[in-house]
Write the structure tokens for this entry.
Amino acid sequence: MAAAPASEITYRGRAFNLRTVTARLRSGRQGTWEVLDHPGGVAMVAVDAGGGVLLVRQFRAAIGAQLLEVPAGTCEAGEQPHETAARELQEEVGMRAAQLVLLGKFYVAPGYTSELLHAYLATGLTASVLPADEDEELSIERVPLAELLLMIKRGEIEDGKTITAVLLAAAHPLLAAGAPAAATP
């Protein structure tokens, strides 16, 4: 781009804003994009002492279907990603993590949204429930990590953040060498 982009919010929603961005490209042509502004989010690969990964099955209105996913959520105003991760873990699977390790952060779909997602490995899990969001009906499933990796390979996991977070977790030294999750403080 040759010039700084112009930006106008065209829709303000409860959770997101839609913004139209116009910029002059180096070629001299003008481009216009619609951008979904997002406050950022988190996804947690919660591994219990037995090596099982806690997942949630929930309805996703955008696709009209249920998906099996890692627990995840949106950062609230003034909340740091690790705080969001701790809160969402309690809300979605009723667990508190003794250790939350940042696995990485990535833009979910930078072609149309500003959402930056922070992926965490959550270990040392103990029961600690917070009330779930009113618009969520979740069922919790426990899947061994090795089976979850096979499910990804077979195309049974269709959620991008789940695939990315699980692959990052599987490569982390706490899990990559088969180290038990219980070994974390």
In short: Residues 81-93 form the longest helix (13 residues). The longest strand covers residues 95-107.
